[in-house]
Specification:
The complex is a heterodimer. By secondary structure, chain A is α/β, with parallel strands linked by helices. Chain A has eight helices and seven strands; from the N terminus they run ααβαβαβαββααββα. A seven-stranded mixed sheet of chain A has the order 2-1-3-7-4-5-6, sandwiched between helices. In chain A, a hairpin with a 2-residue loop joins strand 4 and strand 5. Chain B is of the alpha+beta class. Chain B folds into four domains: 97 residues, Uridine Diphospho-n-acetylenolpyruvylglucosamine Reductase, domain 2, CATH 3.30.43.10; 126 residues, Uridine Diphospho-n-acetylenolpyruvylglucosamine Reductase, domain 3 (2-Layer Sandwich); 247 residues, 3-Layer(aba) Sandwich (Vanillyl-alcohol Oxidase, Chain A, domain 3), CATH 3.40.462; 49 residues, Vanillyl-alcohol Oxidase, Chain A, domain 4 (Orthogonal Bundle). Chain B has 17 helices and 20 strands. In chain B, the strands form six sheets. Chain B has a five-stranded antiparallel sheet. In chain B, strands 1-2-4-3 form a four-stranded mixed sheet. A four-stranded antiparallel sheet of chain B has the order 13-14-12-15, with helices on one face. Classes of the chains: A alpha/beta, B alpha+beta. At the A-B interface, helix 4, helix 5, strand 4 and helix 8 of A face helix 1 and helix 2 of B.
Chain lengths: 199, 541
């Protein structure tokens, strides 16, 4: 199966957003109230390709993203943020995570390595990364992913893997990163209850 | 899991438990995914053995908690690396000098203790960011202006302790120079206050910095003698009016009289901060696509010769140099000072003048939005992240390092630096990061800083190794010519400290003696500023 823009957006963001339906957000939480969606490209922001995976409030962060930064720091709510950006913005998001008691729960680098191939390096909880490698043909792919991540628990072991897919969209040559920033404090508390001593 | 050197996992676990008792369970982080965001995102040694690791993060919320953390670290001899907001991107962020250090993240200590807009000062804790302080001033309608660095995520305390700088008038933009008194937790757990803060019941902590006797404040900047928990800063009263105005001159060597005039105007207090640039460098800096002819000129070994740039500028009707000056004050005096400046610069044949932008205070939302120099009018922002090394015209974009030597504040020195560093890049066989179009920074008002950017990669280790080799070579070359860096990332701090070698490194030997006396277990930031505690010095020999 080839990746067009619509499927790329769903693969990169929609599947990452699916991670939030695990224990990151409370079971009764409304995704639209608890997830902020960030994209760097105005073209992608306007694109209908994002209609399916996009959830909650949308932000375009490019150039001066002070408004986004300040809104996130002021927010009393530990909402999750899902994004598709360059490494530069992601590096700043990681700093935001540190300031606001959150952490990057998943990240994937997508780079067009040849004219017609996209290489994705996925980094995240083992169960989720394994699910991302499933054959993504058919409409039930997102359901399959959600089934796989049902077993995800905060603080899970992170793994890295590489996936190669044929594409039919054009790339600027620079990598794009999809990522999920999620609440961390209750994660730390949960871990304190379950973790033992360091080996 | 990373464990501090010469420590068993059992002892480290016991220490972590003590940290948890001190600051609370949620504020001691040890999991790899939590520690990930404490790596230097711009690291030139990403995933290489030289990348220093963090063993844990402890985030105290009060001075008392800092004291408890220090007591535990002393007992177990754990190296600590304190960070305020940890946003000095390009200079290391939260990456420690010594691997397996425990980060003391002071972000929870974020109180604004005092702000006075009649006597014009503030006293803040380490976790207060520039955004926080600005929002406070706006909310309380205080008639003050903050001097800002280009990155609004950082904070006044950490920025000043790393000798950071800004863009407004002389007394304020040297951020450490503009500080006034501090509170510090020492290695033995004692809390001291400096300047007038040492006087119980003092009424002038934020106003008179010397107190009485020797001033020790400098030991805590780019040093490792304590954890600073409060600092006072002088603030600029909010002016009525701001004017950004520019002079342009047509020839390469016109920079000599131009700098002389800028020095005269600034040292008389008639003008604040001048940004000296060449319009030929601006497209690269501002992320605009440069003309291919200019790209070809810049690609010459060593950055090329001035004549070719002069011809290009002449053909394109560009100034060779511009100086964009900030003026603050009542509009009548600002305009009079600008008129006087024009008279002074008129001695340079072909000088051209233009007003760039102006603003009236208090700033309206529209004025802020319209401004292209928000840092110059005291509004923190993050636009720097779309510039320079982060622009789409540089590659790779994973991060950058700043090479920033101090050179004399004269046009002749600038020309000499172009030649010397250009030759160095030729010898290295690398594309030059400097050319006859490169302007200096005037942050510290009695000297120039050069700021050359080197791009770093998270995937190309060979490229990073070339960058590190070049960086170290430039440090050597600069030192041979009497120039050395004012600030650098941890991995180059030994190299830079080594270049300050007068009388067989007498200064470093002196600070080492002080370090051994004040911090006998060497728990505070081993290696910061090139100062290592005795135990590590001996192990390294």
């Amino acid at each position: 199966m080839q990746l067009d823009r619509r499927r790329f957006c769903w693969t990169a963001i929609g599947s990452a957003a699916a991670l939030l339906r695990g224990p990151v957000l409370p079971a009764d939480a409304q995704v639209t109230d608890n997830v902020v969606f960030v994209v760097e490209s105005a073209v992608l922001l306007r694109s209908r390709a994002l209609a399916e995976p996009a959830v909650g409030l949308s932000f375009q962060v490019q150039g001066d993203f002070s408004e986004f930064w300040q809104a996130q720091r002021r927010s009393q709510k530990q909402c999750a943020v899902v994004g598709l950006t360059s490494q530069g913005i992601l590096a700043c998001i990681e700093l935001l995570a540190r300031d606001t008691g959150r952490r990057i729960l998943f990240r994937a680098e997508h780079k067009q390595v040849k004219e017609d191939y996209l290489l994705s390096v996925l980094e995240g909880p083992a169960t989720f990364v394994e699910a991302m490698q499933l054959d993504n043909k058919g409409p039930l792919w997102s359901t399959k992913i959600q089934e796989h991540i049902a077993g995800y628990r905060p603080g899970a072991r992170f793994v890295r893997c590489t996936r190669k897919m044929p594409i039919i969209l054009t790339s600027t040559g620079n990598s794009l990163f999809s990522w999920v920033l999620g609440p961390c404090l209750h994660v730390a508390a949960a871990r304190a209850e379950t973790s033992g001593e360091i080996a | 899991m990373t464990i501090p050197k010469r420590m068993s996992s059992g002892d480290f676990n016991k220490a972590l438990e003590r940290f948890r008792v001190a600051v609370g369970d949620a504020w001691v982080l040890t999991a790899d995914d939590d520690l990930q965001s404490y790596r230097d995102p711009y690291s030139p040694v990403w995933d290489e053995p030289e990348e220093t690791k963090v063993s844990a993060v402890v985030a105290p919320a009060s001075v008392e908690q800092v004291q408890q953390v220090v007591a535990v670290a002393n007992e177990y001899k754990i190296p600590l690396y304190a960070v305020s907001t940890g946003k000095n991107l390009g200079y290391g962020t939260t990456s420690p000098n010594y691997s397996a250090s425990v980060i003391v993240d002071l972000k929870r200590m974020n109180r604004i203790i005092e702000v006075d807009d009649r006597r014009n000062f503030c006293i803040v804790e380490p976790g207060v960011s520039y955004f926080d302080l600005y929002n406070y001033l706006v909310e309380k309608q205080l008639r003050l202006m903050i001097d800002l660095p280009s990155n609004g995520m950082g904070g006044p305390l950490g920025n000043s302790l790393d000798h950071g700088n800004g863009y407004s008038a002389a007394p304020y933009r040297d951020h450490f120079g503009g500080h006034c008194g501090m509170e510090v937790v020492l290695a033995n757990g004692e809390v001291i206050r400096t300047g007038m803060g040492a006087l119980p019941g003092s009424k002038t902590w934020g106003e008179y910095k010397y107190g009485y006797g020797p001033s020790v404040d400098g030991l805590f900047a780019q040093g490792n003698f304590g954890i600073v928990t409060k600092m006072g800063f002088w603030l600029m009263p909010m002016p009525d009016f701001f004017l950004s105005a520019q002079v342009g001159v047509p020839r390469y060597r016109d920079v000599i009289p131009m700098v002389d005039e800028l020095n005269y105007l600034e040292d008389l207090g008639l003008m604040a901060y001048a940004r000296i640039q060449s319009p030929m460098e601006i497209p690269r800096v501002l992320s605009r696509a440069p003309d291919p002819e200019l790209v070809a000129l810049m690609a010459q070994p060593g950055g090329g010769e001035p004549d070719s740039y002069e011809s290009y500028a002449n053909k394109q009707n560009l100034d060779f140099w511009t100086a964009t000056m900030n003026f603050y004050g009542p509009e009548t005096t600002v305009r009079a000072n600008w008129e006087y400046a024009r008279k002074r610069f008129a001695r340079i044949d072909g000088a051209r003048f233009r007003e760039v932008e102006s603003a009236t205070f208090p700033l309206s939302a529209e004025a802020i939005q319209k401004s292209r120099q928000q840092v110059s009018i005291g509004v923190p922002n993050l636009s720097a992240f779309a510039l320079g090394a982060r622009s789409k015209f540089t590659e790779p974009t994973d991060g950058h390092l700043w090479f920033s030597p101090v050179i004399p504040r004269s046009g002749e020195a600038l020309i000499e630096a172009h030649r010397v560093f250009g030759e160095a890049f030729k010898e290295l066989g690398m594309p030059s990061r400097i050319g006859p179009y490169s302007g200096p920074r005037t942050w510290f008002y009695r000297a120039f800083m050069f700021v050359l950017d080197f791009q770093c990669s998270r995937s190309d280790t060979e490229a990073n190794q070339r960058v590190r080799k070049a960086f170290r070579y430039l440090i050597e070359v600069g030192a041979k010519h009497g120039w050395a860096e004012y600030r650098t990332a941890p991995m180059f701090q030994d190299d830079v400290a080594n270049s300050y070698s007068f009388n067989n490194h007498a200064l470093r030997r002196f600070t080492e003696r002080l370090k051994d006396a004040a911090d006998p277990n060497g728990i505070f930031s081993p290696g910061r500023g090139g100062i290592w505690p005795k135990s590590i010095r001996e192990a390294r020999q």
